[in-house]
Predict the 3D structure of the following.
Amino acid sequence: MAKDKLPSIKVRFPDFRNELLQMVEEDQKEIRENFHAYSKIKSESIKRRKYALVAKNCHARARRLLEILDEIKDPTIKNLGADGSSVVPVIALHSYLEVMKKVLSLFEANFKKDSSNIYYQGIPPLKDRILILEHGKQLFGTNWSIDKDGKPFLIPVEDFPNMNYRRAKYGLEPTRRPVNLAIGATKYPLGRGLAKVSDQKPLTKEEYDEYSRHYLKSEL
């Protein structure tokens, strides 16, 4: 979204809001363009080098995000607007564990303080990714993966029968089976029916290593 097209709303930190919106636009564009190109690359070593470059750029944006958060303290709607608050978890999800934890802590604290003043829908994906990276089970079923045969599976969920009740607390619809988990897919996941217990499968060591490759620490 270009800055001259941003809606005129009163927020405490409009310049930071505009910067974050520009950052997430760059983030999404880079990921879409590169992931589309990856599907045509046969060499795994070349793919990994390109993945690493994108990860470094994501981590650089995350470093800037931390600087902004140090200035504004809370990524609230009053501080950044609804759109500005909503992009903070997106940038964090593409970064690394330290950033994810800091952002999650801020969002959870503000959710408890005033749920109407924070983009709380960003809490479940952050919580799930952190749990998985720390070898736990996710709570909200926001993370699917693909096995070696290209079949989607749901990374295991703690207390699966109550998963959708937990999602509803954060304004999320029930988890649905994915239509397309391919690299660069625009529909993720829009579902062929509700997720089932049988859709779950633990990550193998190799799958975990691939999943966590650029998430555990900063690569700058």
The longest helix spans residues 44-72. The CA atoms of residues 24 and 90 lie 7 Å apart.
